[in-house]
Design goal:
The structure is a single chain. The chain has a domain of 90 residues. 36% of the residues lie in helices and 26% in strands. It contains 22 helices and 31 strands. Strands 10, 11, 12, 13 and 14 form a five-stranded antiparallel sheet that branches. Strands 18-17-16-15-19 form a five-stranded mixed sheet, with no helix packed on it. It has a five-stranded antiparallel sheet with strand order 20-21-22-23-31, with no helix packed on it. Helix 5 packs across helix 12, helix 9 crosses helix 11 and helix 13 packs across helix 14. The longest helix is centred in the C-terminal third of the chain and has 29 residues.
Length: 845
């Protein structure tokens, strides 16, 4: 599932340069020898991508070099005349000063076979542009780490550099080094004997350097509790403690651990239970996560926690190992891969924890067995996580961990568990780059799912796609828009259990860290406004479609919808094979307009800093992307199954094929998913759907779908039905069944297209209704109170009475439907009698 992309290989990037420059020991034949992996070692990686490495040079010297990842160039920084053990080194941003800590063995004047020499660590500051003076910064017995700060590239600040000195005496010093430039190029340390030093941390148990953000994290012990603190370094020697947070566990560690201060090839291996296995990760979206493993209590169980400071919660996971395997001796490795943090134990499991959307465990991916392998992964103790990079110390390689789209799609295709499907779907849609091939594979996979599981996954696909596109335009709304349709998911994930607790003990940037807690409330309110309010939106849409609201409000909503549809058609003209957005669908137009209005109101309420024009742009693009997403889904379904315009013909229903059944099933799932969220559809969707339904389904099933509201007989569909079907007995029954179910407003428009008693009856009813509406109330009472009858009359009395009223009204005013030509009292009488006979079953008697 994870790819380790090699960014640097010392054997291919450095070794050829050393041979070419003849900087390695010479062989007996006078030729430079290729350095072994033991001789050529990576020591540190700086913020700008500079890789610092050491090797054994000529005549027993020890060299320090730099490889520029961007320029792909090597450079010699410094050369020690003798063989030394480089424990740590760092170069300043201008590459004029080099800080190095070396291990020096000092004898006591006694025979070496009787007494071992004493190890002494020296921290040196070296002028390297040009090579000049060397100053000893620290000389102590324990290990010392050095790290330059990369704070600003402002030319005004080139007159000084800043260095951190970290010693195993549990003290971190901040040293300000002022320099002067002589002869235009010689960089010299100013007052080397009077450097400005400041202690920034002491008596700590653990420390980590974050080169990307220039932050120092460290843990101190307060009343037996481990307290995390971090310092942000700014230009001009300023720094600030931004947070002090109790981690919530007792501090029992006895051995110091330093993280991301380079790699010491001469340090003895540390026992995992003597030092704290903890690491802090940040990503570009602002997530700040503290990852740590718990002391081993059970050899058959791993326990680890993630404190999501940006989200205000702690998640603790328990993973049980298979009993058939021996107890695992490996230590948990934490890997930062952007939106995810991977927890990895080679040979056991890989847990991809979603730190950007951590509220549902089904958005994280837990793998075991063969699925959990990460290649190439060397022996774990030699693979270190440096921020978002991985350093393989044995092989001399630097990797960047990335999600593998191919493996992810294969896993999605083969998964049978809902939790795995949701996790892989969420990962593929939200956190992979915009990839049409991946989208096509997901849609193809959705086609093979059952209706019960397909609907939820289609919702996830639609909302995830919209969220990804929206935040790619502006990240300011990342916490305001929905990324999932699942507000609650309570199922378990096989192999891992999770408990969540809120964390409240904050100091410093509390408001910034807890901002995501408010975003949950925002998402719930948006869900209620857009998705959970089905009945209200349906009622409003119906009122609009029946022209029963004021014209101004309707005009504003429809005009906004027209603008959105025109933008959609302009953005992707001629790219789709199915004919959406080519008819006027009043209900969908109103839903489009209503959704955009609700979304604008919601964004204005939640974020007052967004200007109205920006909100309009965000909302319009969001709705356009929604309609395009549905269009792409349906278009891909049609392409996958080879359907074309021939599938929209009703006159050859007997030639329907199995592919049309599958496409109809998929379009039904898409309809249920979208309507389940109360989102609009592209105008024409219902027409296309019911045309396929009319081809695939028997009449009684089709009518059942219509009665359930799953199919919607649109004006264009009924028109096509009346035009393509002849008046055979079967087709006449088909037409009559559909005409009896269409909305009144649609029936009034198209009834004249069908020369049939049903149409005549509808025309007559419309005529009578319109005429009687014009009759004053007082006159109605007078008319209905008259009972003038002649004993000799044998006609159908209700019909005769209606005919006399209509005759009187026609004498008083002109025919309101005179433009239709042939509507009169006699026609109404005949139509009413015909309809009455049909209803009584007396038509053929």
């Amino acid at each position: 599932m994870l790819d380790l992309k090699c960014l640097f290989d010392s054997q291919s990037e450095v070794a050829p340069w050393l041979l070419e420059e003849k900087r390695t020991p010479l062989s007996d034949h006078g030729e430079a020898t290729s350095p072994s992996r033991t001789d050529l070692q990576i020591v540190n990686v700086e913020k700008d991508g500079s890789v610092l490495f050491t090797w054994k040079g000529t005549k027993g010297s020890t060299c320090i070099g730099l490889y520029d990842l961007h320029k792909k160039e090597n450079k010699l920084l410094y050369n020690f005349d003798g063989e030394v053990s480089v424990m740590s080194c760092s170069v300043n941003m201008e590459r004029t000063l080099l800080a190095v800590s070396i291990l020096q063995f000092v004898g006591r004047g006694l025979p070496s076979e009787m007494f071992r020499p004493v190890a002494r660590c020296l921290a040196l500051l070296i002028e390297i542009y040009p090579v000049n003076h060397t100053k000893v910064l620290k000389a102590i017995d324990p290990n010392v780490k050095v790290q330059f700060l990369y704070q600003d590239s402002n030319p005004k600040l080139l007159s000084e550099s800043h260095l951190l000195i970290i010693s195993e005496e549990r003290c971190i010093e901040h040293v300000c080094i002022k320099v002067v430039i002589e002869e235009g190029y010689r960089v010299m340390i100013k007052n080397p004997d009077h450097l400005i030093k400041e202690i920034v941390a002491e008596d700590f148990l653990w420390a980590q350097w974050d080169a990307e953000t220039q932050k120092l994290y460290y843990i101190v012990k307060k009343k037996s509790n481990a307290v995390l603190m971090y310092i942000q370094f700014y230009p001009e020697r300023s720094n600030k403690v931004l947070i002090s947070f109790s981690l919530g566990f007792l501090s029992t560690v006895t051995k110091l651990r330093l993280v991301n201060f380079g790699y010491n090839h001469f340090q003895e291996e540390q026992e995992s239970n003597e030092s704290l296995n903890l690491q802090v990760f940040t990503n570009h979206a602002g997530a700040l996560s503290v990852c740590y493993s718990h002391p081993v209590q059970d050899e058959e169980e791993f326990v680890y926690s993630l404190i999501l400071l940006h989200d205000g919660c702690r998640k603790t996971f328990r993973v049980s190992l298979e009993k058939s395997k021996c107890a695992c001796e490996s230590e948990l490795a934490f890997i930062n891969i952007g939106y995810y943090i991977a927890v990895y134990v080679p040979g056991y499991f890989l847990h991809l924890i979603n730190v950007q959307h951590p509220h549902l465990v089904c958005h994280s991916l837990f793998l075991s067995g063969e699925d959990a392998k990460v290649k190439p992964w060397n022996h774990q103790r030699c693979t270190l996580s440096l921020s978002d990079l991985l350093l393989d110390c044995d092989l001399g390689k630097i990797y960047k961990a990335e999600l593998n789209p191919l493996s992810l799609m294969l896993f999605l295709r083969d998964s049978k568990l809902t939790c795995h499907q949701l996790a892989a779907m969420h990962c593929a849609v939200l956190h992979l780059q915009d990839n049409s091939e991946v989208e096509s594979q997901i849609i193809h996979w959705l086609c093979g799912l059952s209706a019960s599981s397909c609907s939820n996954l289609v919702q996830e696909f639609v909302l995830g796609t919209l969220y990804r596109k929206a935040i790619s335009e502006t990240n300011a709304i990342a916490k305001l828009l929905p990324y999932t349709s699942l507000l609650n998911w309570k199922e378990e994930i096989p192999g891992v259990t999770c408990t969540t607790e809120e964390i409240l003990q904050f100091a410093g940037e509390k408001k910034e860290m807890m901002s995501n807690a408010e975003s949950l409330k925002n998402l719930e309110s948006l869900h209620n406004a857009l998705h959970a309010n089905n009945s209200l939106i349906r009622i409003k849409a119906k009122l609009f479609s029946e022209m029963k609201l004021d014209a101004r409000a309707k005009r504003n909503v429809v005009e906004n919808a027209k603008m959105i549809l025109s933008k959609m058609n302009t953005r992707s003209p001629g790219e789709h094979m199915i004919p959406f957005s080519q008819e006027e669908d009043c209900q969908q137009m109103v839903l489009i307009g209503l959704m955009s209005e609700l979304l604008k109101d919601y964004l204005q309420k939640c974020d007052h800093s967004l200007k109205e024009k920006i909100i309009d742009k965000i909302v319009n693009n969001y709705v356009v992307n929604l309609l395009e997403c549905i269009w792409i889904i349906v278009d891909a379904i049609w392409r996958n199954y080879g359907l074309n315009a021939h599938s929209l013909c009703l006159s050859n229903r007997e030639k329907v094929n199995s592919a049309e059944f599958v496409v109809f099933h998929m379009m039904t799932c898409v309809l249920q998913a979208v309507e389940g969220l109360s989102l609009p559809l592209p105008p024409g969707y219902h027409t296309l759907h019911i045309l396929l339904g009319a081809r695939c389904l028997p009449l009684h099933t089709l009518l059942h779908y219509i009665d359930l509201g799953m199919l919607h007989p649109t004006e264009q569909f009924v028109t096509k039905l009346l035009e393509e079907f002849d008046n055979s007995e079967i087709n006449e029954r088909f037409k009559f069944s559909i005409m009896a179910r269409i909305p009144e407003i649609v029936g009034q428009k198209i009834c004249c297209l069908w020369d049939h008693p049903v149409s005549s009856s509808r025309i007559a009813r419309n005529y009578v209704e319109t005429l009687l509406k014009k009759l004053p109330t007082q006159q109605k009472s007078t008319c209905f109170s008259r009972r003038e009858q002649t004993p000799s009359q044998t006609e159908f009395l209700p019909l005769a009475y209606l005919a006399r009223i209509l005759t009187e009204l026609e004498d008083q005013a002109s025919n309101p439907l005179e433009k239709q030509g042939n509507v009169d009292v006699k026609f109404v009488e005949e139509a009413a009698l015909k309809q009455t006979l049909i209803l009584l079953g007396l038509e053929n008697k």
